[in-house]
Amino acid sequence: MNTFTKKVMSVGEMASGAKLTVPVYSFVSENASGPNVYIQANMHGAEVQGNAVIFQLLELLQHCRLNANITLVPYANPVACNHKNGEYTLGRFDPITGVNWNRMYHFDESVIEPFSQNYIDATEEDINNDFRALMLNEIEQKLDHNIFGLTTGQRIAYQLQRLAYQADIVLDLHTGPISSKHLYCPEYAQASANYFDIPHTLLIPNDFDGAMDEATFCPWWSLQQAFEKQGRKFTMGQGLFNKESFTVELGSQEQIDLDVAKDDAVSILAYLHYKGVISNDEYQPQAMTRYACYLNDYKALYSPMGGMVDYLAEFGEVLAAGEPLARILRMDNYGDGEALHYVSLDKPVIPILHFASASVNQGTELYKVFYNYFELPES
Amino acid sequence: MNTFTKKVMSVGEMASGAKLTVPVYSFVSENASGPNVYIQANMHGAEVQGNAVIFQLLELLQHCRLNANITLVPYANPVACNHKNGEYTLGRFDPITGVNWNRMYHFDESVIEPFSQNYIDATEEDINNDFRALMLNEIEQKLDHNIFGLTTGQRIAYQLQRLAYQADIVLDLHTGPISSKHLYCPEYAQASANYFDIPHTLLIPNDFDGAMDEATFCPWWSLQQAFEKQGRKFTMGQGLFNKESFTVELGSQEQIDLDVAKDDAVSILAYLHYKGVISNDEYQPQAMTRYACYLNDYKALYSPMGGMVDYLAEFGEVLAAGEPLARILRMDNYGDGEALHYVSLDKPVIPILHFASASVNQGTELYKVFYNYFELPES
Amino acid sequence: MNTFTKKVMSVGEMASGAKLTVPVYSFVSENASGPNVYIQANMHGAEVQGNAVIFQLLELLQHCRLNANITLVPYANPVACNHKNGEYTLGRFDPITGVNWNRMYHFDESVIEPFSQNYIDATEEDINNDFRALMLNEIEQKLDHNIFGLTTGQRIAYQLQRLAYQADIVLDLHTGPISSKHLYCPEYAQASANYFDIPHTLLIPNDFDGAMDEATFCPWWSLQQAFEKQGRKFTMGQGLFNKESFTVELGSQEQIDLDVAKDDAVSILAYLHYKGVISNDEYQPQAMTRYACYLNDYKALYSPMGGMVDYLAEFGEVLAAGEPLARILRMDNYGDGEALHYVSLDKPVIPILHFASASVNQGTELYKVFYNYFELPES
Amino acid sequence: MNTFTKKVMSVGEMASGAKLTVPVYSFVSENASGPNVYIQANMHGAEVQGNAVIFQLLELLQHCRLNANITLVPYANPVACNHKNGEYTLGRFDPITGVNWNRMYHFDESVIEPFSQNYIDATEEDINNDFRALMLNEIEQKLDHNIFGLTTGQRIAYQLQRLAYQADIVLDLHTGPISSKHLYCPEYAQASANYFDIPHTLLIPNDFDGAMDEATFCPWWSLQQAFEKQGRKFTMGQGLFNKESFTVELGSQEQIDLDVAKDDAVSILAYLHYKGVISNDEYQPQAMTRYACYLNDYKALYSPMGGMVDYLAEFGEVLAAGEPLARILRMDNYGDGEALHYVSLDKPVIPILHFASASVNQGTELYKVFYNYFELPES
């Protein structure tokens, strides 16, 4: 049975001086032949189910054959996860500034080109070690050398990023508002999406927009591109560049279900088995039709009116063109107007998630849908 | 086909001067032999399903044989129903003062005794008309003669109460957070609870605590008591005192479901048929086991710790003593403490509702349960 | 120089398991001849200035001659004081339930009568010790013996009350929204109000409504009344019944000013010197006109309309009848209505506090004023 | 006396169907020789003082000699200005999405280059008219031709932008949290900053980041640059390119002061007189030292710890290097740590604004300061 260590990382202080901490669990493999793994959950306050998945992963990993180090971080953002707003948890952004907690990671592309020039002839091992050291140093600089200080979210994000930079594979566990399971997957890692028990995959471009997944794969992808420009070819997802990051959307926010969490932990272990992190043949992906969609075609539909919404469309099933996604009740119009308004789209779509409340303003995001979807090719 | 009229009542103004209004729908019966009815919905901001029930009632009532006047008021509290708080709707209390929107109605018991003395020998018709006029005048005084003004909630409550005072039967449509259907029923009206398709009934004492149901039945109940003290006997629920008020809890907040709303509308029509408000034999209550519980035995269970809750107990089924209602995840304890904590009670209970979010502070209300329940006797 | 001890009391847990604690500072006097003192601050989240006053009291008390024990508790409610809501702190009530944090203390009047009968002939020392023990036991029962648990606020309140019950004099440091300094003083303790450097005193009846000041003086006052009914006479504020509690309103919320806090600390020391808690003649009350008003005459004025308010009336000065307290801007009426609306009252009043924001709904509390004020008689 | 017209523009709907509207006031000059003007206020919910300034402008402009058309829009964003959050107004961002209301305007730079090529030889009048028409058409397309709808904020922003595009000069009236008066001024319009009675000017680069000021001057500035590349030279701020936009920060949020508003209205009239919009020599800028700072040097200082802040630095005065901006109270450290922590910077700075509350988390923005300031050269 594998043992893990537990450390506690301090990430924030509140007005009373109360310190907010994050537990960090680490398995260290004696036979570290596979890619190292970093898994975190609950960067967004209301998206708590990932903590239950980490609970189940800790239970299961103690009985696996480990080929690499694995670090797991539940409650990654205790500032957000403790921020109750009435009965609910205020979640996706810093309530003081409005900045999305998952858009505060750091990556400065300008360091890539010089590094690639200096290491054009270096060994893969040197590239791996020194590039990682460079990235880590970037973060240390941000954390420690700033007379103006850091925002609340930067302080948290940079500390998590420092942990994540020590891994090759990064899984950031999130949820939607009311949502099906879906996976954010970099385009180059599309083949890996077949190993998660998740029927919907969003293929994201290899650009940095501040999120954890991007912050961890973009440096490597940029480096691979820079080497290629200078004539040294590597393939993303293989060898030195066997680096993959995913945002795993586990379903709906504001919910803990430990039984479903076990299924999701098993799904993650199937992926880790595929990548050689563990050697336990019992963890295999389920057979299912997996749909994919490019990020550009992942469309939000905004409410054409204020009102109260009866969400009709089922998640994960194709909804025919013209069929209603929702009907909006407008009692103020009853008797002298249209009390029910149906919302539909002009093409078949796969609904992925919808807004968390029936009450919407004009312009509230009602649904997100795969607008041009296709079956994910089996790898 | 019956026609209704629609009026618009102004109940509030916001900082920009925007006026908030409430639509008031009225059916006037030519054959007004039965008790008049007042139905409102959405006094609490997030409890929107009652609006859909009123939609379905308006659809169905146009095709009923009416024996009395019926007034229906959706969006009863637009200040609350428009108050978004992040993604959700802030619901049960005025967000500036913390006062529950459904504790602001008015009843001054001191007017009862003098009235009963003056009307000890009056005809039932005079009592009915003059007592109603007295109650209405009380409200008019509150609305119009106060140099210090009214709170936001009083202004709304008193205007609704003015409408409700013109009826004999009052239904206030609410929901719980995440909840089964249940009914708040005055103890004297217990027999009527058998005519709603609602399996759980809370029997409330005949006391005034500021809510709409109490504000409408307590004056009549107090009057009946006062007459009795002077030797003139009436029976609550019959003849002159055929006055009943219920708070109907339709299920969970933050949801609109027009199909379920139709079921609830049909359930309400079965009760109205029983009371002689409509003459449509097709509306009959369903056969079901109905459980009841006195308000004193309706217990809230508060979380013994902060954490993330996996709610386990099913609503509406008896949970054996010692069986877990919930398990609380505490990842910060994983590895060096108890990561899972089970919550149970010492007696069999019927869980009725639970908190709306998995994330709780120490002391957050987890569940409400029927702690000493019994089968509601058939009438 | 006096030394103090510091203990840390655990009062709550958040969703991540983070514990919230309260520091408790205690001076123990070797010469404990005077009444013991309990001072707390920041029970309401946004009312932070009391923490600065406790800072200054700790600085000054180390250099005083102490005749009694003094306990000081800043950050009394860390759940509330850490609850940021956008830029501001959500303050006066539990944001989940709406219940005012300062209405959750416990007092069960039914224990008084039996105690007074049992102790009708007891010595003053026995009465003092045993009544205190009874009160403490009541609180212990609430904290420890409840299968349904406690609300978040009860757990905090009862722990603070346990500390306060060990003292004879209780000061609960609060602030208004935007406010002058004022003092809530029980009617029987009116003479003591002259020893604070606070120009406005509210005389409150001797009734329990859930607040800390009431929770600490009402038991003693009720006991004194019960003894009197049985023919044993004591005077409140003297001897055995030298028990006084005040809510000290230090000015406006959301502000820390350490210099002003020093003035307020000195004002409190003048009162403590008067009561014999310290023997330092340098602490004397300032000469000033002190106005008083009965709680019944402390009137809130609610906005007659939604709009944006230019608060005109100065605090603490008499405003003549008919003079405007505020003018409300309604730009939506400019050009075709009244863009400015003036608000005034029919009598001279002393404005004490006003709402924290210019933007109000119809029915928002604009001002609180002394409506029938008088000069506080010098003692 | 000039007359104005008033129109009402519908900008949003809430859950109850309530419509939110914006009043639009227009003066049309018979002698339209000067640049047309657009002034709006209250795009951020809590920043209400601009409404009072528009009130005073409406009062004064009726008595001016107008040489151009002027449009004034108070309550520009009623969704935000009506969004109370407890006692305060939630202000700078959409509370559902976190997106800053003043970052949702539209500008697509890609239309500039083709236009400049087509109009390289056109008359100034044709350029002016057709470019304005092009910009307006861009906005119309956004408003009317989108099957996925618009966000709440886009719908508001685009409607305001449509009005602003008809003007040459745009003033967007804002406030800081607790703040001195300051002006956001495009670098090319620096000379104009001398005509406002505002002692602090931020010089912003000519880039588009989504704000109203940028959205209105950037198209013209980009066009001027595009012409210049092709050899046709114009000067920004003159002739055809006499287009200027400013964000005017009027002081602190959550406050209305009609007297101060009159001063600010007079200051704006001095600028409008300078630009030839009005011909009233009595409106002249005050003599004062005006400081300026480039946006890059406008620094936010983030709190190094959670705590309660006593803001010490005065606005608008140079604070010497090393002098404290603030002291942070940490009572939890009293007795066994540092209870007071002083915050200072390494250079002389001019403090411009600070956070709205004393209670801060670690990482909350404490102050914004001019870090490298200089005297604004007189024009």
Automatic annotation (TrEMBL), chains A, B, C, D:
<protein>
    <submittedName>
        <fullName>M14 family metallopeptidase</fullName>
    </submittedName>
</protein>
<keyword id="KW-0378">Hydrolase</keyword>
<keyword id="KW-0479">Metal-binding</keyword>
<dbReference type="InterPro" id="IPR055438">
    <property type="entry name" value="AstE_AspA_cat"/>
</dbReference>
<dbReference type="InterPro" id="IPR053138">
    <property type="entry name" value="N-alpha-Ac-DABA_deacetylase"/>
</dbReference>
<keyword id="KW-0862">Zinc</keyword>
<dbReference type="Pfam" id="PF24827">
    <property type="entry name" value="AstE_AspA_cat"/>
</dbReference>
<feature type="domain" description="Succinylglutamate desuccinylase/Aspartoacylase catalytic">
    <location>
        <begin position="34"/>
        <end position="273"/>
    </location>
</feature>
